[in-house]
Write a structure and sequence with these properties.
This protein is mainly α and 410 residues long. Helices cover 55% and strands 2% of the residues. It is built from 18 helices and two strands.
């Protein structure tokens, strides 16, 4: 096992955030008795949003409903935010801003994880595409409801910029992008920063997500019996892609848990393992000042450096999870079902006939009825993307299964 480092964290001067960083797209009068900072307010708005609540019913790796132990998008986001806060404290950036970014980073994911995302993107190729990160921005700025007079949560510039992992507009050959309709918003969010680089807070959020994803999926995979030393040693795909040193390191992590004598001890060992891994991945980071800053913004003054060995070990965890879980027939068959389900829902809700309006809830129906063809297609995509796994299955059953459906069942 890797032993935790004993040296104290470095003392770094905190970043200074300007009035521009805290600016909102639409000016808001500040309440006289408001004690919270701007980024604390943003974090609260994200937590109280309907999109955040829906994450509890969306797949992380194991389909929602597989068991009450396994993580959902909601628990993953909470864990990423906790790791992000630790990174922010270590690196001298604003913890509330990084937490808000981590809490919001998965809001745009549709039901059924990356399978649902790929299926929606295929359906939307002619209409501007679908991408989970692009949908994050759309949810925060357009789809969430908080104000009577405007759409969105009206977050600070620095908060919106911190979720912009990909700063390329949609094109058919581009895999990661933002929606072309959001060009002006992206430019506003990046004002004083960069339209080609990630902000320092976005880099921290991205690494916190990587840590949470790789470490906690390892824990879930071991609990499910899908990540074991036996399966690791007998998987040809693993041996073809991991060198001996990384394979031995991975085996040591798994055997630490397997060698415990009872289930209670194995549960504790899984927690000890995840804690140690997170500690090592967090302590592997440094704040590096750019020699020639690309902008005058404090948020672009630094780059996040991660020790290459620890970054590679994080990659190994994700690789093992993919080979032993995602490619497992038990998971792959569910993904195939999920793909067909999303495609079928899209076919129904993107139908441009007038009667399609009555299939939507009232708020979506109002938008659908006053939109042009492209707008109707995007609204159908928004509706499906916002569904939880269970809700998508119930809507599918009402539409396609003769024995299912009741006016009281939704």
């Amino acid at each position: 096992m890797i032993k935790p480092q004993s040296e104290p964290p470095p003392k770094l001067a905190p970043l200074n955030y300007s009035a521009s960083d805290c600016a909102r797209q639409y000016p808001e009068p500040r309440k006289d008795d408001e004690e919270r900072g701007n980024f604390e307010i943003d974090r609260a708005r994200i937590i109280h949003s309907a999109a955040f609540r829906r994450l509890q019913g969306k797949t992380q790796v194991f389909v929602s409903g597989s068991g009450d132990f396994f993580r959902t998008r909601l628990t993953h986001s909470l864990e990423a935010a906790q790791i992000g806060k630790g990174l922010a404290l270590r690196l001298g950036t604003q913890p509330d801003l990084v937490e808000a970014s981590c809490l919001a980073h998965d809001l745009g994911h549709p039901p059924f994880g990356h399978t649902g995302e790929a299926a929606l993107h295929a359906c939307m190729q002619k209409y501007g595409g679908f991408e989970g990160n692009a949908q994050n921005l759309r949810i925060l700025s357009r789809l969430s409801t908080k104000f009577i007079e405007r759409d969105g949560l009206n977050l600070c510039r620095a908060t919106l910029d911190s979720i912009l992992k990909y700063k390329t507009p949609f094109a058919p050959a581009v895999k990661k992008f933002y929606y072309s309709d959001d060009q002006a918003l992206v430019e506003w969010a990046c004002e004083g920063g960069s339209l080609s680089e990630k902000s320092f807070e976005c880099q921290i959020m991205d690494w916190a997500d990587e840590i949470a994803y790789s470490v906690h999926d390892l824990e879930d995979g071991m609990k499910a019996g899908m990540i074991t030393s036996h399966r690791l040693l007998n998987s040809p795909h693993i041996h073809d892609t991991l060198d001996d040193a990384h394979l031995e390191w991975m085996l040591a992590q798994i055997r630490f848990v397997e060698e415990q004598s009872g289930e209670r001890s194995r549960k504790a060992a899984r927690k000890e393992l995840t804690s140690r891994l997170i500690h090592d991945f967090v302590r592997a980071t440094q704040r590096h000042e750019r020699e020639v800053p690309s902008t005058t913004s404090e948020r672009y003054r630094y780059r996040l450096l991660v020790d290459p060995l620890q970054r590679e070990r994080c990659r190994v965890l994700k690789h093992v999870m993919f080979r032993l879980i995602v490619e497992d027939a038990r998971v792959a068959t569910l993904e195939s079902k999920a793909e067909r389900l999303v495609q079928a829902l899209f076919q129904v809700f993107s139908n441009l006939e007038d009667r399609t309006a009555f299939l939507f809830p009232d708020d979506f129906r109002e938008q659908w009825e006053r939109s042009d063809e492209a707008g109707k297609i995007r609204i159908a995509c928004d509706y499906i993307a916002g569904m939880t796994d269970d809700y998508a299955e119930r809507i599918y059953a009402r539409l396609f299964l003769p024995q299912a459906g009741s006016i009281y069942s939704l």
